[in-house]
Hints:
heterodimer; A: six-stranded mixed beta sheet
Amino acid sequence: MPLISVKNIEKTYVIEDVETHAVRDISLEINKGEFVAVMGPSGSGKSTLLHMLGFLDRPTGGEYRFDDRSIDEYSDDELARVRNREMGFVFQAFNLLPRTTVLENVKLPLLYADIPNEEQDTLARKAIEVVGLRDRMHHESSQLSGGEKQRVAIARALVNNPSVIFADEPTGNLDSKSGGQVMEFIEKLHADGNTILLITHETYTAEYAERIIRLKDGLIESDTKVSNRHHTKDHFVK
Amino acid sequence: MRFTNSLKISVGGLRTNKSRSALTILGIVIGITAIILVMSVSQSATDLILAQVQGIGSRTITVEPGREPRGPSEFGAIFTTSLKDREVEAIKNPALVRGVQNVTPTVIGSATILFRGETKNANILGTTPSILSVFKIQPEKGSFFTATDVRSRASVAVIGSEVKKELFGPSDAVGETIKVGTRNFKVIGVFAPLGQKGFFNIDEQVMVPVSAAQRYLLGISHYNFILVEAESEAVVPRVARDIELTLRELHNITDPEKDDFHVTTQADIVERVGTITGILTALLVAVAAISLVVGGIGIMNIMLVSVTERTREIGLRKAVGATKKDILTQFLLESVMLTLVGGAVGIVFGATLSFATSIALSHFLGIVWSFSFPISAAILGFGVAASVGLVFGIYPARQASLKSPIEALRYE
Protein backbone atom coordinates (compact mmCIF):
# COMPACT_ATOMS: atom_id res chain seq x y z
CA MET A 1 0.00 0.00 0.00
CA PRO A 2 1.54 3.33 -1.07
CA LEU A 3 2.02 6.10 1.54
CA ILE A 4 0.76 8.72 -0.89
CA SER A 5 -1.85 7.91 -3.51
CA VAL A 6 -3.24 10.61 -5.78
CA LYS A 7 -5.93 10.11 -8.44
CA ASN A 8 -6.87 12.82 -10.95
CA ILE A 9 -6.07 15.56 -8.48
CA GLU A 10 -6.89 19.16 -9.45
CA LYS A 11 -6.35 22.60 -8.01
CA THR A 12 -8.15 25.55 -9.51
CA TYR A 13 -7.86 29.07 -8.17
CA VAL A 14 -10.49 31.64 -8.97
CA ILE A 15 -9.14 35.15 -8.76
CA GLU A 16 -11.47 37.96 -9.86
CA ASP A 17 -13.62 35.56 -11.91
CA VAL A 18 -10.59 34.23 -13.76
CA GLU A 19 -9.95 30.52 -13.29
CA THR A 20 -6.35 29.41 -13.00
CA HIS A 21 -5.67 25.68 -13.25
CA ALA A 22 -2.51 25.27 -11.24
CA VAL A 23 -2.80 21.48 -11.20
CA ARG A 24 -5.04 19.92 -13.83
CA ASP A 25 -5.07 16.17 -13.61
CA ILE A 26 -2.32 14.41 -11.76
CA SER A 27 -2.24 10.81 -10.58
CA LEU A 28 0.73 9.30 -8.79
CA GLU A 29 1.77 6.99 -6.01
CA ILE A 30 4.70 7.28 -3.65
CA ASN A 31 5.77 4.38 -1.48
CA LYS A 32 7.34 4.42 1.95
CA GLY A 33 11.10 4.92 1.74
CA GLU A 34 11.06 6.42 -1.76
CA PHE A 35 13.06 9.52 -2.73
CA VAL A 36 11.13 11.37 -5.42
CA ALA A 37 12.05 14.62 -7.13
CA VAL A 38 9.40 16.77 -8.79
CA MET A 39 10.74 19.01 -11.55
CA GLY A 40 9.30 21.57 -13.85
CA PRO A 41 9.52 25.19 -14.90
CA SER A 42 7.90 27.88 -12.78
CA GLY A 43 4.14 27.81 -13.14
CA SER A 44 4.13 24.09 -13.85
CA GLY A 45 2.22 23.43 -10.62
CA LYS A 46 4.97 21.71 -8.65
CA SER A 47 4.63 23.92 -5.53
CA THR A 48 0.84 23.61 -5.62
CA LEU A 49 1.20 19.85 -5.80
CA LEU A 50 3.59 19.84 -2.85
CA HIS A 51 1.23 22.02 -0.80
CA MET A 52 -1.61 19.59 -1.39
CA LEU A 53 0.51 16.52 -0.71
CA GLY A 54 1.81 18.24 2.43
CA PHE A 55 -1.71 18.91 3.76
CA LEU A 56 -1.12 22.66 3.55
CA ASP A 57 -3.91 23.03 0.99
CA ARG A 58 -6.87 20.99 -0.17
CA PRO A 59 -7.37 19.86 -3.79
CA THR A 60 -10.43 21.20 -5.66
CA GLY A 61 -10.95 17.87 -7.41
CA GLY A 62 -9.79 14.26 -7.53
CA GLU A 63 -8.80 12.08 -4.62
CA TYR A 64 -5.80 12.21 -2.34
CA ARG A 65 -5.24 9.36 0.08
CA PHE A 66 -2.49 9.67 2.67
CA ASP A 67 -1.72 6.50 4.62
CA ASP A 68 -4.87 5.03 3.02
CA ARG A 69 -7.15 7.76 4.33
CA SER A 70 -8.73 10.41 2.11
CA ILE A 71 -7.87 14.06 2.82
CA ASP A 72 -11.61 14.79 2.71
CA GLU A 73 -12.03 12.82 5.93
CA TYR A 74 -9.74 15.14 7.85
CA SER A 75 -10.88 18.32 9.58
CA ASP A 76 -8.58 21.34 9.48
CA ASP A 77 -7.36 20.55 12.98
CA GLU A 78 -6.65 16.96 11.98
CA LEU A 79 -4.69 18.20 8.97
CA ALA A 80 -2.60 20.26 11.39
CA ARG A 81 -2.10 17.17 13.53
CA VAL A 82 -0.98 15.04 10.59
CA ARG A 83 1.43 17.79 9.48
CA ASN A 84 2.74 17.83 13.02
CA ARG A 85 3.19 14.05 13.47
CA GLU A 86 3.67 12.61 9.98
CA MET A 87 5.24 15.35 7.88
CA GLY A 88 8.35 17.48 7.87
CA PHE A 89 8.91 20.58 5.75
CA VAL A 90 12.03 22.23 4.35
CA PHE A 91 11.43 25.50 2.50
CA GLN A 92 13.53 27.44 0.03
CA ALA A 93 13.54 30.52 2.32
CA PHE A 94 14.50 28.42 5.42
CA ASN A 95 11.64 29.99 7.46
CA LEU A 96 13.42 29.90 10.79
CA LEU A 97 12.12 32.02 13.66
CA PRO A 98 14.28 35.14 13.89
CA ARG A 99 16.10 36.05 17.12
CA THR A 100 15.56 32.50 18.35
CA THR A 101 18.22 29.89 19.01
CA VAL A 102 18.86 26.85 16.84
CA LEU A 103 17.64 24.59 19.66
CA GLU A 104 14.35 26.49 20.05
CA ASN A 105 13.81 26.50 16.29
CA VAL A 106 14.26 22.75 16.05
CA LYS A 107 11.95 22.22 19.04
CA LEU A 108 9.10 24.11 17.38
CA PRO A 109 7.11 21.12 16.00
CA LEU A 110 7.45 19.36 19.39
CA LEU A 111 5.76 22.29 21.16
CA TYR A 112 2.62 21.53 19.18
CA ALA A 113 2.86 17.77 19.84
CA ASP A 114 2.30 17.54 23.61
CA ILE A 115 5.72 16.07 24.23
CA PRO A 116 7.16 16.47 27.75
CA ASN A 117 9.80 19.16 28.17
CA GLU A 118 12.80 16.89 28.81
CA GLU A 119 11.97 14.72 25.84
CA GLN A 120 11.63 17.81 23.64
CA ASP A 121 15.16 18.72 24.56
CA THR A 122 16.58 15.25 23.90
CA LEU A 123 14.85 14.88 20.52
CA ALA A 124 15.87 18.37 19.37
CA ARG A 125 19.52 17.83 20.38
CA LYS A 126 19.57 14.51 18.55
CA ALA A 127 18.18 16.07 15.37
CA ILE A 128 20.71 18.91 15.55
CA GLU A 129 23.53 16.37 15.85
CA VAL A 130 22.25 14.56 12.75
CA VAL A 131 22.80 17.71 10.65
CA GLY A 132 26.18 18.34 12.33
CA LEU A 133 25.35 21.60 14.13
CA ARG A 134 25.97 20.52 17.71
CA ASP A 135 28.37 23.47 18.28
CA ARG A 136 25.77 25.94 16.91
CA MET A 137 22.99 24.73 19.22
CA HIS A 138 22.67 28.00 21.16
CA HIS A 139 23.39 30.40 18.31
CA GLU A 140 20.57 32.57 17.10
CA SER A 141 19.35 31.66 13.63
CA SER A 142 20.46 35.02 12.21
CA GLN A 143 24.10 34.25 13.12
CA LEU A 144 24.20 31.24 10.81
CA SER A 145 25.23 30.96 7.16
CA GLY A 146 22.62 30.04 4.55
CA GLY A 147 23.74 26.42 4.42
CA GLU A 148 23.63 26.15 8.21
CA LYS A 149 20.16 27.69 8.29
CA GLN A 150 18.89 25.09 5.86
CA ARG A 151 20.47 22.33 7.94
CA VAL A 152 18.60 23.70 10.98
CA ALA A 153 15.43 23.54 8.88
CA ILE A 154 16.22 19.92 8.03
CA ALA A 155 16.73 19.13 11.72
CA ARG A 156 13.36 20.76 12.42
CA ALA A 157 11.74 18.67 9.66
CA LEU A 158 13.02 15.40 11.05
CA VAL A 159 12.71 16.10 14.80
CA ASN A 160 9.22 14.61 15.02
CA ASN A 161 10.31 11.48 13.12
CA PRO A 162 7.83 12.02 10.25
CA SER A 163 6.63 9.53 7.63
CA VAL A 164 7.55 11.91 4.84
CA ILE A 165 9.74 14.98 4.41
CA PHE A 166 8.74 17.62 1.86
CA ALA A 167 11.58 19.79 0.57
CA ASP A 168 10.57 22.77 -1.59
CA GLU A 169 13.62 24.03 -3.51
CA PRO A 170 15.87 23.50 -0.47
CA THR A 171 19.00 24.55 -2.40
CA GLY A 172 17.35 27.46 -4.22
CA ASN A 173 18.84 30.15 -2.00
CA LEU A 174 22.25 28.52 -1.55
CA ASP A 175 25.58 28.54 -3.36
CA SER A 176 26.52 25.21 -4.96
CA LYS A 177 28.84 24.15 -2.13
CA SER A 178 26.36 24.57 0.70
CA GLY A 179 23.57 23.39 -1.62
CA GLY A 180 25.58 20.21 -2.13
CA GLN A 181 26.03 19.84 1.61
CA VAL A 182 22.31 20.21 2.17
CA MET A 183 21.58 17.58 -0.48
CA GLU A 184 24.09 15.34 1.22
CA PHE A 185 22.06 15.49 4.44
CA ILE A 186 18.81 14.91 2.58
CA GLU A 187 20.34 11.90 0.85
CA LYS A 188 21.53 10.67 4.25
CA LEU A 189 17.98 10.93 5.62
CA HIS A 190 16.79 8.84 2.69
CA ALA A 191 19.53 6.29 3.30
CA ASP A 192 18.24 6.06 6.89
CA GLY A 193 14.86 5.00 5.49
CA ASN A 194 12.94 8.31 5.28
CA THR A 195 10.47 9.05 2.50
CA ILE A 196 11.41 12.25 0.71
CA LEU A 197 9.62 14.42 -1.82
CA LEU A 198 11.92 17.04 -3.29
CA ILE A 199 10.93 19.95 -5.49
CA THR A 200 13.60 21.51 -7.67
CA HIS A 201 14.15 22.96 -11.08
CA GLU A 202 17.80 21.96 -11.21
CA THR A 203 18.41 18.65 -12.96
CA TYR A 204 21.61 18.15 -11.01
CA THR A 205 19.84 18.41 -7.66
CA ALA A 206 16.96 16.24 -8.87
CA GLU A 207 19.37 13.48 -9.74
CA TYR A 208 20.00 12.78 -6.06
CA ALA A 209 16.52 11.21 -6.09
CA GLU A 210 15.58 7.72 -7.24
CA ARG A 211 12.74 8.91 -9.41
CA ILE A 212 12.00 12.18 -11.19
CA ILE A 213 8.48 13.38 -12.01
CA ARG A 214 8.47 16.20 -14.55
CA LEU A 215 5.47 18.55 -14.60
CA LYS A 216 4.34 20.91 -17.30
CA ASP A 217 1.24 23.12 -17.21
CA GLY A 218 -0.26 21.22 -14.33
CA LEU A 219 0.14 17.79 -15.89
CA ILE A 220 2.72 15.04 -15.53
CA GLU A 221 5.04 15.09 -18.51
CA SER A 222 7.21 12.16 -17.50
CA ASP A 223 7.87 9.89 -14.52
CA THR A 224 11.24 8.19 -14.76
CA LYS A 225 13.71 6.28 -12.63
CA VAL A 226 17.12 7.88 -12.23
CA SER A 227 19.75 5.56 -13.63
CA ASN A 228 22.84 7.46 -12.55
CA ARG A 229 22.10 8.93 -9.11
CA HIS A 230 24.45 11.39 -7.43
CA HIS A 231 25.80 10.26 -4.16
CA THR A 232 27.43 11.81 -1.19
CA LYS A 233 30.54 13.89 -1.92
CA ASP A 234 29.74 14.14 -5.62
CA HIS A 235 29.37 17.90 -5.29
CA PHE A 236 33.07 18.24 -4.53
CA VAL A 237 33.92 17.11 -8.03
CA LYS A 238 31.16 19.14 -9.69
CA MET B 1 -1.71 21.87 23.18
CA ARG B 2 -0.55 22.25 26.76
CA PHE B 3 -1.03 25.65 28.32
CA THR B 4 2.59 25.79 29.47
CA ASN B 5 3.70 25.36 25.87
CA SER B 6 1.33 28.12 24.74
CA LEU B 7 2.76 30.31 27.46
CA LYS B 8 6.31 29.48 26.41
CA ILE B 9 5.57 30.33 22.79
CA SER B 10 3.95 33.66 23.69
CA VAL B 11 6.72 34.66 26.09
CA GLY B 12 9.21 33.86 23.34
CA GLY B 13 7.26 36.01 20.89
CA LEU B 14 7.29 38.96 23.25
CA ARG B 15 10.94 38.52 24.13
CA THR B 16 12.07 38.66 20.52
CA ASN B 17 10.30 42.03 20.19
CA LYS B 18 11.36 43.57 23.50
CA SER B 19 11.47 47.27 22.70
CA ARG B 20 8.25 47.15 20.77
CA SER B 21 6.58 45.22 23.59
CA ALA B 22 7.74 47.90 26.04
CA LEU B 23 6.39 50.74 23.90
CA THR B 24 3.13 48.91 23.37
CA ILE B 25 2.37 48.68 27.07
CA LEU B 26 3.13 52.35 27.72
CA GLY B 27 -0.51 53.33 27.21
CA ILE B 28 -1.65 50.63 29.61
CA VAL B 29 1.00 51.60 32.16
CA ILE B 30 -0.17 55.22 32.10
CA GLY B 31 -3.83 54.25 32.32
CA ILE B 32 -3.38 51.87 35.24
CA THR B 33 -1.02 54.30 36.98
CA ALA B 34 -3.71 56.97 36.76
CA ILE B 35 -6.40 54.66 38.12
CA ILE B 36 -4.27 53.46 41.01
CA LEU B 37 -3.15 56.99 41.83
CA VAL B 38 -6.70 58.30 41.82
CA MET B 39 -8.04 55.45 43.94
CA SER B 40 -5.17 55.58 46.41
CA VAL B 41 -5.16 59.38 46.78
CA SER B 42 -8.91 59.65 47.14
CA GLN B 43 -8.85 56.90 49.74
CA SER B 44 -6.29 58.96 51.67
CA ALA B 45 -8.39 62.10 51.18
CA THR B 46 -11.49 60.32 52.48
CA ASP B 47 -9.56 59.04 55.49
CA LEU B 48 -8.28 62.57 56.16
CA ILE B 49 -11.68 64.21 55.87
CA LEU B 50 -13.31 61.58 58.04
CA ALA B 51 -10.57 61.89 60.67
CA GLN B 52 -11.17 65.64 60.81
CA VAL B 53 -14.93 65.37 60.88
CA GLN B 54 -14.73 62.83 63.64
CA GLY B 55 -12.44 65.24 65.51
CA ILE B 56 -15.49 66.98 66.90
CA GLY B 57 -16.90 63.89 68.50
CA SER B 58 -19.66 61.55 67.48
CA ARG B 59 -22.06 62.91 70.14
CA THR B 60 -22.24 66.30 68.46
CA ILE B 61 -25.32 67.41 66.54
CA THR B 62 -25.20 70.51 64.36
CA VAL B 63 -28.25 72.73 63.88
CA GLU B 64 -27.93 75.12 60.96
CA PRO B 65 -30.32 77.73 59.52
CA GLY B 66 -32.12 77.10 56.26
CA ARG B 67 -33.28 73.89 54.66
CA GLU B 68 -30.60 71.31 53.92
CA PRO B 69 -29.18 72.38 50.54
CA ARG B 70 -30.15 69.90 47.84
CA GLY B 71 -28.60 71.71 44.94
CA PRO B 72 -26.36 74.65 44.12
CA SER B 73 -29.33 77.06 44.05
CA GLU B 74 -30.27 76.28 47.64
CA PHE B 75 -26.98 77.17 49.27
CA GLY B 76 -28.28 80.70 49.81
CA ALA B 77 -30.65 79.27 52.40
CA ILE B 78 -27.85 78.87 54.91
CA PHE B 79 -27.73 82.65 55.24
CA THR B 80 -31.19 82.82 56.75
CA THR B 81 -31.53 84.13 60.26
CA SER B 82 -33.86 81.50 61.67
CA LEU B 83 -31.67 80.51 64.64
CA LYS B 84 -31.80 82.95 67.54
CA ASP B 85 -31.91 82.88 71.34
CA ARG B 86 -35.47 81.55 71.29
CA GLU B 87 -34.35 78.40 69.45
CA VAL B 88 -31.35 77.94 71.76
CA GLU B 89 -33.59 78.14 74.82
CA ALA B 90 -36.03 75.64 73.30
CA ILE B 91 -33.27 73.12 72.65
CA LYS B 92 -31.98 73.61 76.19
CA ASN B 93 -35.43 72.89 77.62
CA PRO B 94 -35.38 69.23 78.82
CA ALA B 95 -39.17 69.11 78.53
CA LEU B 96 -38.81 69.60 74.78
CA VAL B 97 -35.49 67.92 73.98
CA ARG B 98 -34.30 65.13 76.26
CA GLY B 99 -30.73 63.89 76.60
CA VAL B 100 -28.91 67.16 75.85
CA GLN B 101 -25.63 67.68 77.69
CA ASN B 102 -24.81 71.17 76.44
CA VAL B 103 -25.82 73.63 73.75
CA THR B 104 -23.27 75.91 72.05
CA PRO B 105 -24.70 78.72 69.91
CA THR B 106 -21.96 79.92 67.60
CA VAL B 107 -21.24 82.65 65.06
CA ILE B 108 -18.37 82.80 62.60
CA GLY B 109 -16.68 85.63 60.78
CA SER B 110 -13.29 87.02 60.01
CA ALA B 111 -11.51 90.18 61.06
CA THR B 112 -8.16 91.90 60.96
CA ILE B 113 -6.34 91.56 64.27
CA LEU B 114 -3.91 94.29 65.24
CA PHE B 115 -1.25 94.22 67.93
CA ARG B 116 1.53 96.81 68.13
CA GLY B 117 1.70 97.26 64.37
CA GLU B 118 1.49 93.50 63.63
CA THR B 119 -1.66 92.56 61.72
CA LYS B 120 -3.19 89.25 60.87
CA ASN B 121 -6.41 88.15 59.27
CA ALA B 122 -7.97 85.59 61.51
CA ASN B 123 -11.19 83.67 61.81
CA ILE B 124 -13.53 84.84 64.54
CA LEU B 125 -15.40 82.17 66.40
CA GLY B 126 -18.05 83.60 68.69
CA THR B 127 -19.04 80.83 71.05
CA THR B 128 -19.67 79.70 74.65
CA PRO B 129 -17.48 77.72 77.08
CA SER B 130 -19.14 74.42 76.16
CA ILE B 131 -17.23 74.54 72.83
CA LEU B 132 -14.30 73.16 74.87
CA SER B 133 -16.30 69.99 75.50
CA VAL B 134 -17.35 69.71 71.83
CA PHE B 135 -13.80 70.03 70.51
CA LYS B 136 -12.25 68.33 73.58
CA ILE B 137 -9.68 71.10 73.98
CA GLN B 138 -8.33 73.36 76.73
CA PRO B 139 -6.23 76.54 76.55
CA GLU B 140 -2.55 75.83 77.10
CA LYS B 141 -1.99 79.16 78.84
CA GLY B 142 -4.43 81.36 80.70
CA SER B 143 -8.08 80.37 80.75
CA PHE B 144 -11.20 80.30 78.61
CA PHE B 145 -14.01 82.80 79.02
CA THR B 146 -16.90 81.86 81.30
CA ALA B 147 -20.68 81.81 81.00
CA THR B 148 -20.65 85.12 82.91
CA ASP B 149 -18.36 86.62 80.24
CA VAL B 150 -20.88 85.49 77.61
CA ARG B 151 -23.77 87.06 79.49
CA SER B 152 -21.93 90.34 80.01
CA ARG B 153 -20.55 90.51 76.45
CA ALA B 154 -17.03 90.72 77.88
CA SER B 155 -14.39 91.83 75.36
CA VAL B 156 -12.05 88.94 75.99
CA ALA B 157 -10.43 86.56 73.50
CA VAL B 158 -8.73 83.18 73.48
CA ILE B 159 -6.41 82.74 70.49
CA GLY B 160 -5.06 79.86 68.47
CA SER B 161 -1.34 79.03 68.25
CA GLU B 162 -0.79 80.49 64.73
CA VAL B 163 -2.48 83.75 65.65
CA LYS B 164 -0.37 83.95 68.78
CA LYS B 165 2.84 83.20 66.88
CA GLU B 166 2.28 85.81 64.20
CA LEU B 167 1.20 88.62 66.49
CA PHE B 168 3.30 87.98 69.55
CA GLY B 169 6.18 85.82 68.42
CA PRO B 170 7.84 84.12 71.35
CA SER B 171 6.62 86.64 73.96
CA ASP B 172 3.68 86.06 76.25
CA ALA B 173 0.22 86.95 74.94
CA VAL B 174 -2.01 86.45 77.97
CA GLY B 175 -2.95 89.82 79.48
CA GLU B 176 -2.17 91.81 76.31
CA THR B 177 -4.83 93.77 74.46
CA ILE B 178 -5.45 93.19 70.74
CA LYS B 179 -7.63 95.11 68.36
CA VAL B 180 -10.21 92.89 66.66
CA GLY B 181 -11.77 94.92 63.87
CA THR B 182 -12.34 98.22 65.63
CA ARG B 183 -12.67 97.02 69.20
CA ASN B 184 -10.11 96.14 71.82
CA PHE B 185 -10.18 92.63 73.27
CA LYS B 186 -8.10 91.33 76.14
CA VAL B 187 -6.28 88.05 75.48
CA ILE B 188 -7.07 85.73 78.39
CA GLY B 189 -5.97 82.40 76.95
CA VAL B 190 -3.83 80.75 74.26
CA PHE B 191 -4.23 77.29 72.69
CA ALA B 192 -1.37 74.94 71.90
CA PRO B 193 -1.14 73.89 68.22
CA LEU B 194 -4.16 71.61 67.77
CA GLY B 195 -4.74 71.65 64.01
CA GLN B 196 -8.04 70.80 62.43
CA LYS B 197 -11.12 70.03 64.50
CA GLY B 198 -14.20 69.37 62.45
CA PHE B 199 -14.34 72.17 59.93
CA PHE B 200 -12.21 74.51 62.04
CA ASN B 201 -8.49 74.97 62.18
CA ILE B 202 -8.22 75.86 65.87
CA ASP B 203 -4.75 77.38 65.34
CA GLU B 204 -6.18 80.14 63.13
CA GLN B 205 -9.12 81.06 65.38
CA VAL B 206 -9.77 83.97 67.67
CA MET B 207 -12.48 82.81 70.06
CA VAL B 208 -14.62 85.43 71.75
CA PRO B 209 -17.91 85.29 73.70
CA VAL B 210 -20.71 84.76 71.18
CA SER B 211 -22.66 87.74 72.49
CA ALA B 212 -19.67 90.05 72.04
CA ALA B 213 -19.06 88.79 68.51
CA GLN B 214 -22.70 89.35 67.58
CA ARG B 215 -22.88 92.85 69.00
CA TYR B 216 -19.42 94.35 68.41
CA LEU B 217 -17.96 92.48 65.48
CA LEU B 218 -20.76 91.20 63.24
CA GLY B 219 -23.76 93.35 64.15
CA ILE B 220 -26.20 90.43 64.04
CA SER B 221 -28.60 88.83 66.49
CA HIS B 222 -28.85 85.32 65.00
CA TYR B 223 -26.48 82.35 65.15
CA ASN B 224 -24.67 80.69 62.27
CA PHE B 225 -25.09 77.30 63.89
CA ILE B 226 -25.85 75.66 67.17
CA LEU B 227 -23.76 72.73 68.34
CA VAL B 228 -25.65 70.34 70.57
CA GLU B 229 -23.83 67.65 72.50
CA ALA B 230 -25.95 64.66 73.40
CA GLU B 231 -25.46 62.76 76.65
CA SER B 232 -24.39 59.62 74.82
CA GLU B 233 -23.90 58.39 71.27
CA ALA B 234 -26.90 56.12 71.63
CA VAL B 235 -29.36 58.97 72.12
CA VAL B 236 -28.03 61.06 69.18
CA PRO B 237 -30.76 60.06 66.70
CA ARG B 238 -33.50 60.73 69.27
CA VAL B 239 -32.06 64.10 70.28
CA ALA B 240 -31.77 65.09 66.62
CA ARG B 241 -35.38 64.08 66.08
CA ASP B 242 -36.53 66.01 69.17
CA ILE B 243 -34.72 69.13 67.98
CA GLU B 244 -36.40 68.89 64.59
CA LEU B 245 -39.85 68.50 66.09
CA THR B 246 -39.28 71.29 68.63
CA LEU B 247 -38.03 73.79 66.08
CA ARG B 248 -40.80 72.92 63.63
CA GLU B 249 -43.38 73.54 66.32
CA LEU B 250 -41.67 76.76 67.32
CA HIS B 251 -41.69 77.95 63.71
CA ASN B 252 -45.21 76.66 62.97
CA ILE B 253 -43.96 74.38 60.22
CA THR B 254 -46.14 71.39 59.30
CA ASP B 255 -44.47 70.36 56.06
CA PRO B 256 -40.84 69.17 56.65
CA GLU B 257 -40.12 70.29 53.07
CA LYS B 258 -40.52 73.86 54.28
CA ASP B 259 -38.03 73.60 57.18
CA ASP B 260 -36.03 76.79 57.75
CA PHE B 261 -33.28 74.88 59.59
CA HIS B 262 -31.59 71.54 59.35
CA VAL B 263 -30.10 69.13 61.83
CA THR B 264 -27.01 67.09 61.02
CA THR B 265 -25.45 64.32 63.06
CA GLN B 266 -21.85 63.15 62.68
CA ALA B 267 -23.11 59.92 61.14
CA ASP B 268 -24.86 62.02 58.45
CA ILE B 269 -21.63 63.87 57.75
CA VAL B 270 -19.55 60.70 57.54
CA GLU B 271 -22.11 59.28 55.13
CA ARG B 272 -22.17 62.44 53.07
CA VAL B 273 -18.37 62.64 52.87
CA GLY B 274 -18.32 59.01 51.79
CA THR B 275 -20.85 59.70 49.05
CA ILE B 276 -19.05 62.77 47.77
CA THR B 277 -15.59 61.20 47.68
CA GLY B 278 -17.10 58.04 46.19
CA ILE B 279 -18.65 60.00 43.33
CA LEU B 280 -15.46 61.98 42.78
CA THR B 281 -13.37 58.82 42.77
CA ALA B 282 -15.68 57.13 40.30
CA LEU B 283 -15.55 60.19 38.07
CA LEU B 284 -11.77 60.39 38.13
CA VAL B 285 -11.41 56.65 37.55
CA ALA B 286 -13.75 56.98 34.57
CA VAL B 287 -11.54 59.72 33.15
CA ALA B 288 -8.47 57.57 33.72
CA ALA B 289 -10.27 54.69 32.03
CA ILE B 290 -10.38 56.70 28.80
CA SER B 291 -6.61 56.47 28.65
CA LEU B 292 -6.98 52.71 28.98
CA VAL B 293 -9.21 52.60 25.92
CA VAL B 294 -6.56 54.57 24.07
CA GLY B 295 -3.94 52.17 25.41
CA GLY B 296 -6.06 49.22 24.30
CA ILE B 297 -6.37 50.60 20.78
CA GLY B 298 -2.59 51.00 20.83
CA ILE B 299 -2.27 47.32 21.75
CA MET B 300 -4.66 46.31 18.99
CA ASN B 301 -2.78 48.45 16.49
CA ILE B 302 0.61 47.00 17.38
CA MET B 303 -0.74 43.46 17.50
CA LEU B 304 -2.20 43.90 13.99
CA VAL B 305 1.16 45.18 12.75
CA SER B 306 2.82 42.28 14.52
CA VAL B 307 0.45 39.75 12.95
CA THR B 308 1.15 41.12 9.46
CA GLU B 309 4.85 41.29 10.11
CA ARG B 310 4.92 37.75 11.42
CA THR B 311 2.81 36.28 8.62
CA ARG B 312 5.63 33.92 7.63
CA GLU B 313 6.07 32.84 11.23
CA ILE B 314 2.36 32.07 11.44
CA GLY B 315 2.57 30.11 8.18
CA LEU B 316 5.53 28.15 9.46
CA ARG B 317 3.83 27.39 12.78
CA LYS B 318 0.79 26.13 10.92
CA ALA B 319 2.98 24.06 8.61
CA VAL B 320 4.64 22.33 11.53
CA GLY B 321 1.32 21.55 13.18
CA ALA B 322 -0.19 24.58 14.92
CA THR B 323 -3.99 24.60 14.76
CA LYS B 324 -6.13 27.73 14.45
CA LYS B 325 -6.73 27.57 18.16
CA ASP B 326 -2.99 27.36 18.89
CA ILE B 327 -2.33 30.52 16.87
CA LEU B 328 -5.32 32.31 18.40
CA THR B 329 -4.13 31.36 21.89
CA GLN B 330 -0.59 32.48 21.13
CA PHE B 331 -1.53 35.98 20.01
CA LEU B 332 -4.24 36.42 22.62
CA LEU B 333 -1.84 35.38 25.37
CA GLU B 334 0.73 37.79 23.98
CA SER B 335 -1.64 40.73 24.23
CA VAL B 336 -2.98 39.70 27.66
CA MET B 337 0.55 39.24 28.97
CA LEU B 338 1.50 42.64 27.59
CA THR B 339 -1.40 44.33 29.34
CA LEU B 340 -0.85 42.37 32.56
CA VAL B 341 2.78 43.47 32.66
CA GLY B 342 1.56 46.99 31.88
CA GLY B 343 -0.94 46.65 34.70
CA ALA B 344 1.69 45.45 37.17
CA VAL B 345 4.04 48.28 36.24
CA GLY B 346 1.15 50.74 36.46
CA ILE B 347 0.17 49.49 39.92
CA VAL B 348 3.74 49.93 41.15
CA PHE B 349 4.01 53.38 39.53
CA GLY B 350 0.61 54.45 40.85
CA ALA B 351 1.37 53.29 44.39
CA THR B 352 4.80 54.97 44.29
CA LEU B 353 3.33 58.24 43.04
CA SER B 354 0.62 58.10 45.67
CA PHE B 355 3.25 57.47 48.34
CA ALA B 356 5.30 60.42 47.03
CA THR B 357 2.16 62.57 47.08
CA SER B 358 1.47 61.65 50.69
CA ILE B 359 5.01 62.61 51.69
CA ALA B 360 4.87 65.84 49.69
CA LEU B 361 1.48 66.86 51.11
CA SER B 362 2.47 66.03 54.68
CA HIS B 363 5.72 67.92 54.24
CA PHE B 364 4.60 71.05 52.42
CA LEU B 365 1.08 71.51 53.70
CA GLY B 366 1.72 70.19 57.17
CA ILE B 367 -1.39 68.04 57.15
CA VAL B 368 -1.48 64.46 58.29
CA TRP B 369 -1.92 62.82 54.89
CA SER B 370 -1.58 59.10 55.36
CA PHE B 371 -0.64 56.86 52.44
CA SER B 372 -3.29 54.29 51.78
CA PHE B 373 -3.37 51.72 49.03
CA PRO B 374 -6.72 49.93 48.73
CA ILE B 375 -6.25 46.30 47.70
CA SER B 376 -9.38 46.71 45.59
CA ALA B 377 -7.38 49.14 43.44
CA ALA B 378 -4.75 46.50 42.70
CA ILE B 379 -7.39 43.91 41.88
CA LEU B 380 -9.25 46.39 39.69
CA GLY B 381 -5.98 47.38 38.00
CA PHE B 382 -5.10 43.79 37.10
CA GLY B 383 -8.66 42.95 36.10
CA VAL B 384 -8.97 45.96 33.84
CA ALA B 385 -5.55 45.35 32.30
CA ALA B 386 -6.35 41.71 31.54
CA SER B 387 -9.72 42.59 30.01
CA VAL B 388 -8.16 45.31 27.86
CA GLY B 389 -5.71 42.68 26.58
CA LEU B 390 -8.53 40.24 25.86
CA VAL B 391 -10.88 42.74 24.25
CA PHE B 392 -8.30 44.45 22.07
CA GLY B 393 -6.27 41.29 21.43
CA ILE B 394 -9.04 39.09 20.14
CA TYR B 395 -9.36 40.76 16.73
CA PRO B 396 -5.66 40.63 15.78
CA ALA B 397 -5.39 37.08 17.19
CA ARG B 398 -8.34 35.98 15.06
CA GLN B 399 -6.79 37.58 11.99
CA ALA B 400 -3.62 35.60 12.69
CA SER B 401 -5.43 32.30 13.21
CA LEU B 402 -7.37 32.64 9.95
CA LYS B 403 -4.27 32.94 7.78
CA SER B 404 -3.88 30.00 5.44
CA PRO B 405 -0.52 28.29 5.85
CA ILE B 406 0.54 28.60 2.23
CA GLU B 407 -0.55 32.22 1.90
CA ALA B 408 1.39 32.91 5.06
CA LEU B 409 4.48 31.04 3.86
CA ARG B 410 4.46 32.81 0.49
CA TYR B 411 4.18 36.26 2.10
CA GLU B 412 7.20 38.43 1.38
